[in-house]
Amino acid sequence: MTEMSKKDDTLTPTTDAQDQMVRGSAWMTAGSIFSRILGAIYIIPWGIWFGSYFFQGNALYGKGYNIYSFFLIAAIAGIPSAIAKQVAHYNAMNEYGVGFRLYKHGFVLAAITGIVCAALLYFGAPLFDGGDARVVPVLHSLAWAVLIIPVMSLSRGFFQGYQQMAPSAISQFVEQLARVLYMLGSAFIIMRVLHGSWITAVSQSTFAACVGAIAGILTLVWYYLKNRPTFQNLVANSENQIVVPAKQLYHEILQQALPFIVLGAGITIFQLIDQFTFFKIMRTTGVTNETVLNDLFAMFSVNANKLIMITVSLSSALAITAVPLLSEAFTRGDKRDLSKQITNAVLLFEFVMIPSALGMAAIAHPLNIVFYGVSHKALATAVLAFSSFVSIMLGLFSVTSAIMQGVSQNKRAVRYFAVGTIVKLALQWPCVHYMGVFGPLVATMIGFVVANVLIVSWLNQAFGVDYQGIAKKTNGILGFSLIMCLLANMIVRLVSSGLGHIMTVDSRVGSLIIVILAVGIAGYVYVYFVLKTRLADTVLGERTARLRRLLRIK
């Protein structure tokens, strides 16, 4: 065993696919969760410094970021996930040299797509502002990130192809940390020191994406230099029986990558539909005040979305981990292992997503105040609670679409997503017209339900899904999650009543105390039940024994 295989993650496949998936998911989940938490916590001081411009600034930030996200996904072009899948494919055949050539050619493609998409975003910004000229400088600042992030994402995909999840996770966290520090620093200086324009402050906050990307790239370079001897050893000991021409390598990358654009941008595409239709539809209902419309848009598309994406990132981490593992099993033609891994991925998704979503809904009121203050608190709480339930469908799509990609059903997955998108478009007008701010969320949920049902049905037909085993464990997860949800809601009510005698409950400090107590106590109860009943063992494997000993649960 090499030195690297004793550290972080192993470079070569293990015999226990479930254990490998859990370990890889742990790294990706940790990196994604910490990054998402950082990306949510910054909003507290950021909002304080923006003062009365907070909701307007957040709406502008969201408008720019939704467009940027689509261009970024187009620039990345699914190449990192495609590289991860193809590298894992050739590594399973002990052809590590081919994997390195794939990375080099992918690097060229990523650089080209980054340059093209950054130029389109920068010079075409007036075409994408949706009638709001304030969006243009925000898009200009984001174009620089589009220029360099594709290369960084490609490098993460290369490490993931070796089931090396630690470099991706740590670089993701470093990227986010640098981004948040720059955002807060620039916002404070512009708004509080210079008393400048809030539009300029938002533009600098979005430019922080470029600063973070530079930090992320430097982290990956350090990891590569550290592990280069092991990589070279693997290449030297490859079979070297396959010679793949450069033209074929490019073809393989693009063939695998293009569907990743659509599937990777799935949630973003739905958000763009909301961004370019919500204002027009709402005006037909008689709501024409731009400030009110921006506040409503910020409420469901930016504020609530920022928080639910913390939980959705859990499933995204699972999705990234599943692709190379499924690709290896598919390459071996092991249908039984494929069925088992699909079942494991779904169960692991449910194990973390269901309690997270229900828990967030239970504490929506104090959680919303902690992050966004008391503006529109009743409506904002309802939107956040409903968004928490919608997040389950968003997360499930991340997992099911990744599974389809792992078994080389990219085109089929795109077709199923297209059906879901058509459903979303068909329902958008009536939902928004009659349900207002909840309309886009309802249309989104139904659209993803349709896409998920189509994908799961096909997977069951092709490989067989252990529905009986999944249903039994799902009942346990759902039951314990509901107990946790009810307990969290009870704690919120009791603590709010008690704190009301000594301090203002609807304040950031009071709400933070309530959130900490509710999450801590209710979360522990969920963990206790899944460990005590051994439900966690069937999902996470033998690692739970150590956690039981740590928590002194017999």
TrEMBL record:
The keyword Transmembrane helix applies. This is Polysaccharide biosynthesis protein. It is a multi-pass membrane protein. CDD domains: MATE_SpoVB_like (cd13124). Its main location: membrane. The keyword Protein transport does not apply. It comes from Secundilactobacillus similis DSM 23365 = JCM 2765. The chain crosses the membrane at residues 33-55, 67-84, 105-125, 137-159, 180-199, 205-225, 257-273, 307-326, 347-367, 379-404, 416-435, 441-463, 475-492, 512-531. Keywords: Cell membrane, Membrane, Transmembrane, Transmembrane helix. It is found in: Cell membrane. One of its GO terms (cellular component) is plasma membrane.
